[in-house]
Amino acid sequence: MDISVLGFYSKTVSTFFAIIGPIDLAVLFAILTVHNSPSEQRSIALRGCMVAFCILLFFAFFGSWLIQSIGISISAIKISGGLLLIRLAYRMLFDSVSPVDMAENATKDISVFPLGTPLLAGAGSISATVVYTADSGALSAQTFVTIWAFTTIIVISFVLFIIAGRLHKVLRPSFMDALTRVMGILLMALAIQFILDGLQQAGVF
């Protein structure tokens, strides 16, 4: 393989790893699926990763065209992603019922929201996909290397989700509840950062 291709792959895979943060998401996944069975956790993880892959694949091929044609800016994507994450972080921090207990009774599927998007395929990863493919054709080597890069991180995330999903079997509920609150703080900070980045990119300040 060409050295330049390997260099571009190394850069893009490092970018997606930093943006998506598979290790942090694995801890959050363990919290949100603490009362799901192993088979349910695998199913949720697989669907979430597939949703993220499809979203990023779409933006790899059509992102630049879509943004230009309907006037959506990357800053708007960042702000909207941040607002969505704020709602989840608020529930993790301030609900009177423990988020771990809420997971036990939850009937909704988290694989699409928030796992698939905006946690895996969020404003940052979508932005990176568009940026890395904007200056090349849809069928260029640069586009396919970008796809390879985010696919690598999604696969790593899936493996870590499966491993992290077993954490609740060895950790006490009180510890998981405390961890939920901590992750809520970090998730709120991430959401605020998304919004601030979007506002800064839009030229508000």
Question: Would you write up a description of this structure?
Answer:
The chain is mainly alpha-helical and 205 residues long. It is built from 9 helices and no strands. The chain has helices at residues 3-20, 22-32, 38-70, 74-94, 99-105, 111-120, 123-133, 141-164, 173-201. α4 crosses α6 and α4 packs antiparallel against α7.
Number of strands: 0
Multimer state: single chain
The N- and C-terminal alpha carbons lie at a distance of 44 Å
| Percentage of residues in DSSP E strands | under 5%
Low-pLDDT residue intervals, each spanning 5 or more residues: 102-107
Q: Classify the secondary structure makeup into a structural class.
A: mainly alpha
Topology:
Blueprint: H1 3-20, H2 22-32, H3 38-70, H4 74-94, H5 99-105, H6 111-120, H7 123-133, H8 141-164, H9 173-201
Please summarize what this structure is.
With 205 residues, the chain is mainly alpha-helical.
Summary tags:
mainly alpha
